[in-house]
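In this section we walk through a basic example: taking a raw amino acid sequence and producing a predicted 3D structure, encoded as discrete structure tokens. The instruction is simple. Fold the sequence below.
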Amino acid sequence: MDRFLKLSFLGLFFSLCVGVVSCDPYSKPHEPHEQNTLLLTDKVGATISTVPAGGKQILLQLKSSSEWKLSLEGDSFVAFSPNEGGQGEFSLILTIAPNEGEERRAVLVARMQGKEGASARYTIVQQGKTSHGGSSLVGEENIQGDISLIELPRLSGKATDYFITHRVEGGKKVNYSLEYNVDAHHSRWVCFSFDAETKQINTGRSNAWGWDPQVPAEYEVYRNDFESRIFARGHLVASHDRVFSSEANMQTFYYTNMSPQRHSFNEGVWLQMEQVVQTWGRSLKQTDVLYVAKGGTIRPDQIESRRSNNKLVVPKYYWMALLKKTKKGWSAIGLLAEHSKPSKVTRLQNQALSIDQLEEFTGLDFFFNLPDEVENRVEALDPQTILTEWPGL
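The resulting token sequence is shown next.
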């Protein structure tokens, strides 16, 4: 990933200032509670947006405790208004022109005026109509998600894939994300995080089975597509992973989150892996975060020879990639299991491998939004040397 966009992502992650700003379509000058505060987000609190090649308008929200000005870094395909203001809350309109060329990006920078003024950045990535080359981030993929999330594997960029971030609480809270391949009728991966809010247990299993509203109905998968005598409708994001709200749990029952798993596997080693991850996620301290990516392999060389109901691919392997941020720093570990495994394994330690090894096996690029120096170090960690950091293996 090029340094230009990675730095934009890191600004989002390390600033921790992406709260949603409540504002009307007009500016509302008043004295903010915090001094030297400058926030620039969209309506769901994100600081990056993916825009289709045809162009788009985006409404941003800016909050400042002092006078501010806007400038644009990168390609000049974005118009914005207003470009300056004073203290208070403001709505900004971004107009993105149509793109006839390759993928392009720009960063809108807000700077507070004064010697020690704060700054805030909003990144725009626009898809292109021509060849994308090696610098493409989103390619021709159908983008309906937040590409800045730390738990995210790198996108495929394929027109057959839908990248989606499911949110709750009126869009204010990320629930989980996925990348769904319509040819395979199966997700390439799902990802989410456990934090102080999402690790909570406030509800139970909803059994709200249904199709994902963000994927066209022409690709819909039904209950009968899972041959019940052979396969369970196996959750990728487990129901019990998302019980911090009833809305969050209901979203785990979308069929885009299901995989045809043999019953013995679903109730055996996969359940063991799910439970140990849930234990790790719910044992976090208040400021800790556990980032989780999961999936079943859907590459042509890593699927079974037959499809469920001649429709859904059946993975040969299932995996989990875990990244933990605590006061002690970062740690990461992978888990990999064959679909043909017996109902249970004696020790999950035997399923553990480094993230580098898991990447080599699956062909996926995990946690690519991390700073390079952190990513390179934690993804090379040998699981056998860090078992005390992952109790229960």
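Looking at the output, two observations stand out. The longest strand covers residues 317-326. DSSP finds six helices and 19 strands in the chain. In the next section we compare this with other chains.
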